[in-house]
Design brief:
Layout: E1 8-14, E2 21-23, E3 30-32, E4 43-52, E5 63-68, E6 84-89, E7 97-100, E8 118-123, E9 128-130, E10 136-139, E11 151-159, E12 169-179, E13 206-211, E14 236-241, E15 246-251, E16 270-271, E17 276-281, E18 289-292, E19 295-296, E20 305-309, E21 319-321, E22 327-330, E23 341-350, E24 357-367, E25 381-385, E26 393-398, E27 412-415, E28 425-429, E29 434-439, E30 451-459, E31 467-479, E32 485-487, H1 501-529, H2 562-566, H3 568-573, H4 602-617, H5 667-673
Parallel strand pairs: 6-12, 17-24, 25-31
Antiparallel strand pairs: 1-4, 2-3, 4-5, 7-10, 8-11, 9-10, 11-12, 13-15, 14-15, 16-19, 18-22, 20-23, 21-22, 23-24, 26-29, 27-30, 28-29, 30-31, 31-32
GO molecular function: beta-catenin binding; cadherin binding; calcium ion binding
InterPro entries: Cadherin, Cadherin-like_dom, Cadherin-like_sf, Cadherin_CS, Cadherin_Y-type_LIR, Catenin-bd_sf
Protein name: Cadherin-20
């Protein structure tokens, strides 16, 4: 009955009419005038009726309809029962269930993955793990000792969207306590006790008390003392004081003194603690000390210890440990997106007995740093119809980011600065890590422009904020009245009517043949001009390279940069290193024959590690640089004394015969100062 002349008036009533929804009384179009939240109200029941505008009489009975609100992912999972408290016995086997945590998501579970929750552990590894589907927390490390560590704080994350990038996340804390089991025997704080008693002491008189310590607690720490052996077992008795857990030695028959000597046995070094867990950001500078590993010799001799890394546990050589101090440092750049965990083994060896080697596991967690900008997951290409109207949706875009912040990813979309005032298209951020591309005008024509390239700026919510620019390619297509694409290839309007397609192909083929002929002629002329006789100066077998200086000393400025040795940090942050141009020195350093007993400065270590990584990564750099250490001389050194202050007063008192044993390089020097191999001269 509505002929579009405005004679009919539409009215709206029911839930939210006039407050949430409004109706155009001329066209009957219903619009939302407030922001809708499905979690507050999932649907609205409305009634509409058409009236005669002049008389106000109904044109038909009142109609009832329901508006259902479609869900989007705008609620993060929440742990309603957190924080949690749990207890598990110490020394429990791997996989023992501790507690189950549950997170709820207010989004619609029947629509998409908005309410599909996946659990993960943010803090508490490697001691505990969590089932990604059920939220059950289990033990992940064997031999967890309550006496070493009793309390653990575990942080669990629940992330919706099935754990995919772009999902929202919530966290909770689980405080786990290890309950005691009887796994520690009583130990006496001293190995030898010396007591005395009068020979006239009556039976049952107290001789002395002994006390043992038990690291367990409660009933597991209760003790009972007994005499197990000795020549005074029949003369003395021992009872246990239940209140103070001490052993009271009393006279039974006779008295005696017992001396027990415990002999030392060579044992390997012992690490304290027995396990290391280190967290380090992925942007740490090469050479940074991330942990001090400490071990000691339990023997009485307390031998010196040297540290090293088991290379089978660190095949990528990401870490380095100082041989004397045990300082664990980074030797290569760390990348969490490549390796988020490193499990290495540090070895400790006794200097006097290399067969005694101890080891300790070191777990290194690489923390995430916002170092990856968000980007389009694929190439986006869309189309717009020539008859499109302003405000029409042509594409929905999303982004991915290789980083994984604790609170989930949040992306922000906008047009690039160079396209901020684009008259053709605009972008609307959906606030759910997606964005819509809309037309800003109508009346697109293929003849004017067939393809548009729209630059889109994508930024993340990290610190610092990183962004990238992606391009959306939009083609102008011919469409029917229903919006179906008919053709996206613009017709060749610029070709003359008399020039057919076949003629155009023939012309292009002729041009291609002419270009091939020209290139062939130029190539033949170039081969004719090239000489076939090799110039003598170019013969590499007859080249002579002359060096005017022998190297070494203060004049050898090509061997190394002395400024880099005085200030390694400036050399590392400055320009490219200076490479040696002369020959590789053949003199070997004497420092490799002498035990290294002094700790090297950590700044020099950092500089050497950075230079080592730089040389390993540069596949074209020749090995010209060398570092010779001349820091050991005098008594006890292989080099002997280099000082002339204690030399003999007369050359005749010194013998240089040892120069003949130094090889052909010192033959001339041996002839000048050493003993002659031939007969003595007659004059």
């Amino acid at each position: 009955m509505d002929r579009g002349d405005g004679s009919i008036k539409y009215i709206l009533s029911g839930e939210g009419a006039g407050i949430v929804f409004t109706i155009d009384d001329t066209t009957g179009d219903i619009h939302a005038i407030q922001r809708l939240d499905r979690e507050e109200r999932a649907q609205y029941t409305l009634r509409a009726q058409a009236l005669d505008r002049r008389t106000g009489r109904p044109m038909e009975p009142e109609s009832e309809f329901i508006i259902k609100i479609q869900d989007i992912n705008d609620n993060e999972p929440k742990f309603l029962d957190g924080p949690y408290v749990a207890t598990v016995p110490e020394m429990s086997p791997v996989g023992t269930s501790v507690i189950q945590v549950t997170a709820t998501d207010a989004d619609d579970p029947t629509y998409g993955n908005s309410a599909r929750v996946v659990y993960s552990i943010l803090q508490g590894q490697p001691y505990f793990s969590v089932d990604s589907k059920t939220g059950v927390i289990r033990t992940a490390l064997m031999n967890m000792d309550r006496e070493a560590k009793e309390y653990y704080e575990v942080i669990i994350q629940a992330k919706d969207m099935g754990g995919q990038l772009g999902g929202l996340a919530g966290t909770t804390t689980v405080n786990i306590t290890l309950s005691d089991v009887n796994d520690n025997p009583p130990r006496f704080p001293q190995k030898h006790y010396q007591m005395s008693v009068l020979e006239s002491a009556p039976i049952s008189s107290t001789v002395g008390r002994v006390f043992a310590k038990d690291l367990d607690e409660g009933i597991n720490a209760e003790m009972k003392y007994t005499i197990v052996d000795g020549d005074g077992a029949d003369a003395f008795d021992i009872s246990t004081d239940p209140n103070f857990q001490v052993g009271i030695i009393t006279v039974k028959k006779d008295t005696t003194t017992v001396h027990i000597s415990v002999e030392d046995v060579d044992e390997p070094p012992v690490f304290e603690p027995g396990f290391y867990f280190v967290e380090v950001p992925e942007d740490v500078v090469i050479g940074t000390t991330i942990q001090i590993i400490s071990a000691k010799d339990p023997d009485v001799t307390n031998n010196s210890i040297r540290y090293s890394i088991d290379r089978s546990s660190d095949p990528g050589r990401f870490f380095y440990v100082d041989i004397t101090t045990g300082a664990l440092m980074t030797a290569r750049p760390l990348d969490r997106e490549e390796f988020s965990w490193h499990n290495i083994t540090v070895l400790a060896m006794e200097m006097n007995n290399p067969s005694q080697v101890g080891s300790v596991p070191v777990t290194i967690k690489v923390l995430d740093v916002n170092d990856n900008a968000p980007e389009f997951p694929r190439f986006y290409e869309a189309f717009v119809c020539e008859n499109a109207k302003a405000g029409e949706l042509i594409q929905t875009v999303s982004a991915v980011d290789h980083d994984d912040p604790r609170n989930g990813q949040h992306f922000y979309y906008s047009l690039a600065p160079e396209a901020a005032n684009n008259p053709n298209f605009t972008i609307r951020d959906n606030q759910d890590n997606t964005a819509r591309i809309l037309t800003r005008r109508s009346g697109f024509r293929q003849q004017e422009q067939s393809v548009f390239h729209l630059p889109i700026l994508i930024a993340d919510s990290g610190q610092p904020v990183l962004s990238s620019t992606g391009t959306l390619t939009i083609q102008v297509c011919s469409c029917d009245d229903d919006g179906h694409v008919m053709s996206c290839s613009p017709e060749a309007y610029m070709l003359p009517v008399s020039l057919s397609r076949g003629a155009l192909i023939a012309i292009l083929a002729c041009i291609f043949v002419l270009l091939v002929l020209v290139l062939l002629i130029l190539s033949m002329r170039r081969h004719r001009k090239q000489p076939y006789i090799i110039d003598d100066e170019e013969n590499i077998h007859e080249n002579i390279v002359r060096y005017d200086d022998e190297g070494g000393g203060e004049e050898d400025t090509e061997a190394f940069d002395i400024a880099a040795m005085w200030n390694p940090r400036e050399a590392q942050a400055g320009a490219a290193p200076k490479t040696r141009q002369d020959m590789l020195p053949e003199i070997e350093s004497l420092s490799r024959y002498v035990p290294q007993t002094c700790a090297v400065n950590s700044t020099v270590h950092s500089y050497v590690l950075a230079k080592l990584y730089e040389a390993d990564m540069d596949l074209w750099a020749p090995p010209f640089d060398s570092l010779q250490t001349y820091m050991f001389e005098g008594d006890g050194s292989v080099a002997g004394s280099l000082s002339s202050l204690q030399s003999a007063t007369s050359d005749s008192e010194q013998s240089f015969d040892f120069l003949t044993d130094w090889g052909p390089r010192f033959r001339k020097l041996a002839e000048l100062y050493g003993a002659s191999e031939g007969p003595a001269p007659l004059w």
